[in-house]
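I'll show an entry:

:::
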Amino acid sequence: MQTKVGMVSLGCSKNQVDAERMLYKIGAAGYKLVGDAALADIAIINTCGFIQSAKEEAIEEILEFAELKKEGRIKKIVVTGCLAERYRHEIAEELPEADAVVGLGENDNIVEILDSLSENIPIERYGVNEQLCLTGKRIQTTLPFFAYLKIADGCNNRCTYCSIPQIRGKMRSVPMEDAVAEAKELVSKGVRELIVIAQDTTRYGEDIYGKCMLPELLKKLCEIDDLKWLRVLYCYPDRITDELLDTIASEEKIVKYLDIPIQHCCGDILRRMNRPGDEETLRKIIAHIREKVPDIILRTTLITGFPGETGEQFDTLADFVKDMRFDRLGCFPYSAEENTPAAEMDGQLSDEEKQHRADIIMEQQMITVDAKNTAMVGKVIEVVTEGFDRYGDCYFGRSAMDAPDIDGKVYFTSPLKKLTTGLFTKVKITSVLDYDLIGEVYDEPAE
């Protein structure tokens, strides 16, 4: 009888790609993969360890499976991912319910580790984080029509608040021929949208080719037949070149959407974050992007309550956000992470104040989003169908303006024809609901 293995993958899309590679190896070795880890013999928790809330979520997940193990519903628990890499022996000591703790550098050996669980001896395997394999076959865990294409791992930016360089090491790019080959394989299996990801996509290729090769990679990806949408996330604002913007503007398959996490706009705060720029520079960058790529959708992320952030600096940030009218925005209260320079800085704010400031930014952003969404009423946009909401008795999906999981959705009716997941169709927007659009199918769906 085959041993059943299930996985819960937490955190970012980059971690999800790591999970997909492990799942392929596990399935190819003869284990039976099950979608619900609670129904498995072996449950793998692929953790995130980036900020405090993510760490808490991972620990809660492990403890929930520990209860299932105590009840005899599952047999073994394996902890992988960033939390396992970051805390290593601490996880094994403080969570003895885990039968194996596996660092990133040992992901390639996951089958050997699962095979060893039968010996009932606790396993700790860590290796070197920079040995994490960046290529290889995957079992896709997203909806069938879209997939993430991870083009690099690790980071060289050394922002003072960030633990990623400790966890994942220096930036390592995927060779261009390997990235293109993986993209072609994904498209051959039905993927119509590729989402290009890395810790900093604008540094892609520097370690291999001596310069950023993101524009060239995007052009090669656009040559893939049957690929419809190509989306780019995690672009460092000061590294957005005219070559990149010209590529986005000229290539039909690249959606006019750019994710540029700026974190803050005040020069003093950015310098404490070890990030370049100031308010004037960022205003010029954003204006230049919009000039080069008209109607582009801009997403950003911000941190409120960074050590030393004064009330005046926060007000400047709030005014900046109001003026810039970002299409998509996420704002997070600063999280002090162990062994990062920012955690030792003077001027730490209370959790309540950090969250209060984040709430103000998001309330203000809601006003901007409401105005932009209201302006969409009456327009016809292309939407990819993601599923059917039986409670709302309507379909739902995304337009090119929205990335999966982080942005809004389009809810729409189709009285004349049943739609299938992954189908692209035209939808006329009739109303708005918070961050989402409401509409109806405008014409016959087209592949």
